[in-house]
Write a structure and sequence with these properties.
Length: 394
């Protein structure tokens, strides 16, 4: 099959939705299918490149295009991408159109009747109701757009889709998966380089949080927890690794202010510069414990990655993350928005590292069974093939 992905962000941009889209695309290519991606072009990236056999077309949507005298900026912001899509995504090149967010679904719905191919949508908006007109927009997307199928990466996303009006018969679960062979203990040089990048000393105990700087990710709770953790473990260092892509500068500044107010600038470190794509294995391996204190998650791909890397995981018992915790015995759950409980759990791991490592090994064995990229790819392919067969009949 010839499959097109329409997604606003794609590696080397880092994040759970970007990792999912890349893993799916690469897996489909390994199965013998052709996958092309239309996504945003960032400074330093090429207009066209290939990643793991996936052909990536990058289109600029910056204000320079809007200033042309023959363009209406307001319309260009909303519909400008369709001009590039029309030149690339044509009926003879497309058997399935796959999108990964609400705006992609809207654009895909405008295109699919001309392309005469099935439209499959996957949504990665975890808390759409918090966006302007978010609930109404989500009801429009799920309840009224002419898509052929929704594929969700978790039971929580599946529940959300149906709650906002998707026809349950068109909603399919293909749980997010990772390539477990890409994770696991890094060699000594990789770990040393990762610790240098994290700016921690050889004897430091690293409490790692990977996630965009958004309030629901719980970075501020970790900062508060560290005021207690460092009293008991002076060599503990929390490192918050994340980006501002689809995130909040104001929230990052709040986190920085919390760190300053608590006099933790030497013990809580922020790393917001870009990581080389594919480097997270070593980053996780360099951690003593990984925490995911989110207020909400669709699933929590970084938690899965941490477990696959063999690190002890502490995560909040919220929908989405609970799916990971329940599937992977050996992980530790804490209540959301509870810095004291988070501090106690971190101290328990640092107090008894042997016990924590035993739990991490149990969890790693489970995550490779429960969140395998091959199962995710197979789930999407079943949907694609069924839609293509139906189209051929009609």
């Amino acid at each position: 099959m010839k499959i097109w992905f329409l997604t606003p962000t794609f590696p080397p941009v880092r994040g759970g939705s970007e990792t999912q889209a890349f893993t799916l695309a690469a897996g489909l290519v390994r199965e013998g299918h052709s996958v092309s991606v239309l996504t945003e072009r960032y400074p330093g990236s090429s207009a066209v490149e290939e990643l793991a056999g996936v052909r990536v077309h990058r289109s600029r949507t910056d204000p320079e295009r809007w200033r042309s005298p023959d363009r209406v900026p307001w319309e260009e912001r909303v519909f400008g991408l369709l001009r590039d899509a029309q030149d690339l995504i044509t009926p003879d090149r497309t058997d399935v159109l796959q999108t990964f967010c609400q705006v992609g679904a809207v654009l895909g719905a405008m295109m699919t009747s001309s392309l005469r191919c099935p439209l499959v949508v996957t949504m990665n908006e975890t808390t759409p109701h918090t966006d302007p007109f978010g609930s109404a927009r989500t009801r429009l997307v799920y309840g009224h757009l002419p898509y052929d199928a929704v594929v969700t990466g978790s039971a929580e996303y599946q529940r959300q889709a149906i709650e906002y009006g998707a026809d349950p018969a068109r909603v399919h679960l293909a749980r997010y998966g990772i390539d477990g062979d890409l994770y696991g203990p890094g060699d000594g040089s990789e770990v040393d380089e990762a610790r240098q990048w994290l700016r921690v000393a050889p004897g430091d105990q690293v409490v790692l949080l990977v996630g965009r700087f958004k309030e629901r990710k719980g970075q501020r709770e970790l900062v508060r927890a560290m005021t207690r953790v460092t009293r008991r473990h002076p060599r503990a260092r929390a490192v918050l690794v994340g980006s501002l892509n689809s995130a909040s500068v104001a929230y990052q500044r709040q986190v920085e202010q919390d760190i300053a107010d608590a006099d933790l600038s030497e013990r809580v470190l922020l790393r917001t510069s870009a990581l080389p794509f594919g480097s997270l294995r070593a980053i996780y391996t360099a951690a003593t414990v990984v925490v995911q204190p989110s207020h909400s998650e669709g699933l929590g791909l970084s938690a899965i990655e941490a477990i696959a890397a063999g690190r002890p995981l502490i995560a909040t018992a919220v929908p989405g993350l609970s799916e990971v915790l329940e599937s992977c015995p050996g992980t530790v759950s804490v209540p959301p928005k509870d810095p004291d409980a988070l501090a106690d759990a971190i101290c328990a791991v640092l107090d008894n590292p042997e016990k924590a490592e035993r739990g991490a090994r149990r969890a790693r064995a489970a995550v490779r069974r429960e969140f395998d990229a091959r199962d995710m790819v197979g789930g999407y392919l079943k949907v694609y093939e069924r839609l293509r067969a139906t189209e051929d009949v009609t």
